[in-house]
Structure formats: C-alpha cells, structure tokens
Amino acid sequence: MGVLEFDGIVVGAGPAGVAAAVTMARGGMRTLMIEKGRKPGVKNVMGGVLYTRSITPIFPEFYQNATLIERPVVEENFWFLTKDSALKFGFRSQEFNRGVPNAFTVLRVKLDEWAAKEAKNAGALLLPSTRVDDLLREDGQIVGVRTDRPEGDIRASVVVLAEGANPFLAIKAGLVEPLKSDRLALAVKEIISLPKDKIEERFHLNPGDGATLELFGDAVGGLLGYAFIYTNKDSLSVGLGAILSDFLKNRVKPYELLENFKVHPVVKPLLEGGKPMEYMAHLIPEAGLRANPRFYADGVMVAGDAAMMVNAVHREGSNFAFASGRMAGETAVEAFKRGDFSARTLSAYERRLKESFILKDLKKYRNLTPLVERKKMDFLKTYPEWLVFAIQQMLSVDGVSKGEKEKRIKEALFKKKSLLHVASDVYQLWKAFHG
To answer: Which helix (H) or strand (E) holds 114?
Structure first.
C-alpha cells in the first residue's frame, strides 16, 4: 500500500482544528483531520462559554441550533470570596440576547461532534483514534505526518497543528518553546445536574436565559486563578483553574480544591441538590506572547491553544481557536491556489492574526499575568480582603460613627501598605491593563 497523500492535514479536531479543516475543504483542498480521541470532543475540555461572532463566520447558523447551545448569556458576574463573605460585581443586559446573541454556554462533547460532522459534510476526512508521533520533512520543509498506525506516514502540502495545550508537534517544528509549569494552568470541572426551574430560580433568570460567575480569592484557596459556575439547560458547569506551578508549590490537589469551593457558604446554596455527572481536567496555556510563538514555517502553521492563543483575562480560548483556525485555513487555501506552501506564502497567516483581535488582545495583556504573579498576595488577597473589610464596616450600624469607621479602614490598609506602595501598585496595574 502506498503512502496516503492529501493537500492538507489538520492535527486535532477541537475548535481550531475543525475551523481549519472546514475552511480548507470548502476551498477545494483534499483535507484530512486527525483526532487522538475515539471521537471529537471526548478529550476536549473548556469552561463552557462560546462567543457567537467567532464561530458564525464558519458556521453562520450555529446560534439557531437549539440542540447545540445550552443558554444565551445575559448576565456576567465577578465575585471575590473571603472565608465567609463575597464581594459581588455583575452586569445584566437583554441586549446580549437580541438579534445574534453575544455568547452561549455549550457542552464540548455535543459541540465538537457536531462541528466535526460539518467538516466531513464539507469534504474533510476524519481519522479518529490516531496519534501523530512526528512530522515528515524534506529539504527543511514539513511535508506530512507520521502516525501510530501501520504504514502510518501521511503526506500533505501543508500541516495545521491544532493539538491543544500540550503542543508536542509544534515544539518539534520549532514554533513553540517547551512550556514550564508557571506558564500552564490546570483546570478541573464538573457537570452538575440540576432542574431548569432551580437554575432559573437561583440565578434569577428568565426561562431559557443564562448567566456566568467567575469567582476569585478564597474560591481557589488564594492560588493564581479563578473558579467558575456557568448555567446550562439542566445542569451547571462548575470548576476552577490555577497556574500549575501554584498547585505544585502549595501541594494542593485540584479535586480537593474544587470540593472546598463547592461547600463555600455563598456557593453551596447555588449547587444544593445537584448531582455530579462528569468530572474532567485539562491543561490551559497561559504563556501568551511570553512564549514567543512562531505561527508558521515552511509547510506548517499552528493555531489555537497550541499557539498559546488564550486570553485568561476574558476567558477566551475557544473563541481564539475558532478564529485562528479559520485564518490558518484561509491561508492554506490561498497557498493551495498558488501551489506554493513556503513560509513566505504562509506568512499571510501571521498578517491575518495581527490584523485581528487575537494578537491585539494578547499584546494588550502581555504584561498583566507576570505582574499578578509577582504581586499575587497584594492583588488577590491583601487589597480585596481590605475592600471587603471596608464595606463590612460601612454597612454595619453598630453605634460607631462613620468618621471613626473611615479611620479604621485607612489604618487597616496602611498597616500593611504605605501610601506610596499603594499608589505604585495602582499605577502598575493600570499600565498592565493598557499594554
């Protein structure tokens, strides 16, 4: 049997891989999509929020598919937890649910399986239960992949690497640096079954509407990360993630941290009576542009998590994956029409990324994570706990004058931080948010 040949190979059938494969197949390329799992979605994990405008350029009617979407998100909440309190900030708008909704909650098993079928309908071939072990090279150019199947070499003019947070092949291709534990996050998640009416009652939702909660501080035991609760049709996506090095340094087991989060006094009532249905864990790249990723070389491009395209500040991972996969696919189609898959031609992929929100956002926040890592105790513990203390003081009517309370509040802060130190921290945080 001869070596199989395609115009393009996509490694990975997650959002980035599917987006690339669909785009390439629709552009007339003979496309093979290789997936390590027995079917798309079984190995993939995400928090569960998908932004509509990143997927509709690929699947224009996705948001109308009632079997895929769980709930449109009309409210987003951010809570900071101390041991027994919660400082809450949130925003609700029905504008998010008018016309094309801004975001949905989704379940990846359903989403990925459907998206892979759409890729097949477009003409791509799916090869599941197959591991790619290496890249094939000729004269310095990548010309295919080596799989774990018998006679497993498969050739192609271009390979798109969409292998996720453990970019084994992208590292081999010299596009991504090997990642250290301080540049990876470990996320754990449960799907907790809960009746629709209970979800809508507890989260104060109209029938069919959804909400998200991101929770910081004691929610993750003071680690650098956050917890989340997202509403599905008749379940909740409940989980948390933190920098892997923090787990190792503090000798914290992720599932134990999740169990502690679930019994926090302000969280427990939201989950009460729910039945855990699934448990999963996943690595998330947090390095961003700090990892100095290269996005292309002769015969190869890298997209999604494998290219460090995650914006943790706005929980955009799948969002970036769909968009970057589409751009890689568009670049591959252009190269196919030219008959030239050199790095010079594939450089159009990086141009697309630079012109898009992806690299603009990654550049904007490139200094934020390092700053928070350096000053974690200040930003994730000292200041928020002081703010909770201040609010408790001002809301308590206990015979103490408001002037005296203000004095106590100032003393509580300046015992820990000087005015100059506070001003410096505020300036550094402002600067980090503004790129």
So the answer is: helix 108-122
Query: DSSP string covering 140-194, please?
Result: TEEEEEEESSTT-EEEEEEEEE---SS-HHHHHTTSSPPPPGGGEEEEEEEEEE-
Q: What tokens were used for 90?
A: 């949130």
**pTM value > 0.85:** yes
Task: Report CA Rg, the chain.
Answer: 23
Mutual orientation of helices 318-338 and 15-26 as an angle, nearest 10°?
30
User: SS3 for 426?
Assistant: helix
> Percent helix, strand, coil in the chain (nearest 5)?
40, 25, 30
Max Cα–Cα distance, the chain, nearest Å: 89
Structure tokens at 181: 């534990």
How far apart (Å, rounded) are the C-alpha atoms in residues 202 and 267? Answer: 11
Given the structure tokens 């706990």, which residue do they identify? 385
pLDDT digits (tens, 9 = 90+) for 212-221: 999 998 899 8
Give the distance, in angstroms, between the CA of residue 135 and the centroid of all CA atoms in the same chain: 27
In the Cβ-directed half-sphere of 150, how many Cα atoms lie within 13 Å? 1
The string of pLDDT tens digits covering residues 352-389 is 999 999 989 888 887 777 777 777 777 777 888 888 88
The pair of structure tokens assigned to 63 is 């948001």
Q: What angle do CA 222, 224, 228 make, to 5 degrees?
A: 85
Instruction: Check the CA dihedral 53-294-296-39 and report its sign.
Output: negative
User: And the tokens for 417?
Assistant: 């931080």
Q: Identify whether the C-beta of residue 332 lies closer than 8 Å to the C-beta of residue 325.
A: no
